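Example record for the data management plan.
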Amino acid sequence: MSRTAPRETPVEPTLAFVESPVQLLNILEWAHADALATERATFAELTVVVLSPLDPMSRGQLRRMAELARDEGIGVRWQEARGGPGALLRTLRELGPAVRRAERVVVGDPFSRYVQLLLALARATEIVVVDDGTATMEFVTQLARGERLVRWHRKGRAGLRDRVFAPVSASARRRLTPGRGRTVEVFSSMPVQAPEGVRITANDFGWTRSRFGPPRLTRGADLVGTSLVETGVVDPGHYLDAVAALARAHGATRYFAHRREAAEKLRLLSESTGLEIVRPDLPLELIARRGPIGRTILSFPSTVVHTLPLALADTGVQVVVCDIAPEWLTDKASPRAQGFLSGVTDTARDVHRLTATAHTAPA
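Corresponding structural encoding:
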């Protein structure tokens, strides 16, 4: 009697987890760069799992980004990871087999508890971290120092939930550290220094520039919003005053809202400044590259002061970054906030710096 050959377990060559539109954009940038550097069919080997957030604007942008990813031949799986009390266990149960099979895992937010739980299940020999904004700078610093992973704007000692979750966080940090049989790569447009054993690959937004633009430029200036008020770092009154002063001094007419900005804050901002509030349906790097966009883009310290000069290279657009004054910070702001925000500005390339006291002076 003939014996049946054992069925081989399918392998997921590369599995990526994203929770925001910017993370998915940077997954596309990483896949593009990896395919060019290795001549691998990276797009075809890649499956992206969207751990869907709850806020409508993020979900809308993620659905648009998922369409772009599918157009590149990437498999996209939409996971309702936050849809009720049983969502966490259901997500871990449904994704567990694929996570354990993956040869390479790509993550966009190493601080995410969801990602840390999934990393605890991973057996991958390659781990890749792509940019989740300026938080990548803090992640690399903490990894190099062997510190626990804590977001830069968090204040105070660890709470009860943090202490309960500590073993999972510690396990994730070990998996994000190079070791025997495991490599770690950070794919970033931020000015980061590689910890021992970690490979840093520069993100120059080659995929974005190859697919979109160059944009048509308008004569005026555009303002880029930030969620520093929503995260409790900056006082709302100071923020509204600064935006109004910038709009007057530089002739800005449009305000590109961050996806986490509160509707009431945006209403007050529109009424007090007359700015047109734009709710982008894609990450700003793609919106700006497709155009039309102002010849001057004004921003507070944030990810875009690093990414927009790369995405808009050779277009003639000037990016102006406006410092956050110490008196704008709230009592809830972390003691590290001022230094971190200053560092974001200090390390930005190809931008014009505008101090907090000079907001009314045209660049």
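Summary line stored alongside the record: The longest strand covers residues 217-224.
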